[in-house]
Amino acid sequence: MEVVIVPDAAAGGELIAEAMAGLLRRTPDAVLGVATGSTPLPIYQALTAKVRSGAVDISRARIAQLDEYVGLPADHPESYRSVLRREVLEPLGIAPDAFMGPDGTAEDVPGACAAYERALAEAGGVDLQLLGIGTDGHIGFNEPCSSLASRTRIKTLTEQTRIDNARFFDGDIAQVPHHVITQGIGTILEARHLVLLATGEGKADAVAATVEGPVAAVCPASALQLHPHATVVVDEAAAAKL
Ligand code: GLP
């Protein structure tokens, strides 16, 4: 695992966007795995600037979603599909048919999970997977004690994650869904390069457990230690407990 400490979130965003640009120059039809949450926004802003200036061509890339709420209509502004359309696909000019994600509205949720695993495999797997981290060490929506070998499946959110995410739902925890579909930890580990960005002091404990703790399901992000090509980018505040 490579750990890179940057001065602030903007520097982390620029560093990771440049890594994505480098990948796209080598592999124009790369599959980019994208994450939601506030943390990756500086990455998407920096990548958008590179695309708009002509520094990199993203027109042949494909985009893969990490996780999704179950039961929110697809056009709900906080479904991750909507969030990614707004924050990633539209700014980067990526066509809807270059996007793949799990169907959080499906009646047959296990079927939707299996279909998404098939779609990822048929796309040739994910070349670079962006990850944020929850305050409890979760990646995607793999909450603590998720199996390190897990595949895409339905999960129940912890109270802490619903509290953390209530800010996207007018601060009202009652509006935060209880269930989600997430790529499993085993699924995530199959991406060829994992890039986790963590910023702010609220992530310092989770970052320390990820980088210096034992590989343990109680901190799902610690599974990155098992990956041959994992990069953890942290700002000074998130690195404070390393
Ligand atoms: C959610 C997402 C994760 C994300 C986490 C942290 O739980 N499912 O993918 O990493 O939030 O979000 P933030 O970056 O806003 O702290």
TrEMBL record:
Pathway: Amino-sugar metabolism; N-acetylneuraminate degradation; D-fructose 6-phosphate from N-acetylneuraminate: step 5/5. The keyword Cytoplasm does not apply. The active site is at D67, D136, H138, E143. The keyword Hydrolase applies. The record marks S146, R153, K155, T156 as: Part of the allosteric site. It catalyses: alpha-D-glucosamine 6-phosphate + H2O = beta-D-fructose 6-phosphate + NH4(+). Its EC number is 3.5.99.6. Allosterically activated by N-acetylglucosamine 6-phosphate (GlcNAc6P). Residues 10-225 form the Glucosamine/galactosamine-6-phosphate isomerase domain. GO terms for molecular function: glucosamine-6-phosphate deaminase activity; identical protein binding. InterPro entries: Glc/Gal-6P_isomerase, Glucosamine6P_isomerase, Glucosamine6P_isomerase_CS, NagB/RpiA_transferase-like. One of its GO terms (cellular component) is cytoplasm. Keywords: Allosteric enzyme, Carbohydrate metabolism, Hydrolase. NCBIfam families: nagB, PRK00443.1-4. Belongs to the glucosamine/galactosamine-6-phosphate isomerase family. NagB subfamily. This is Glucosamine-6-phosphate deaminase. It comes from Streptomyces shenzhenensis.
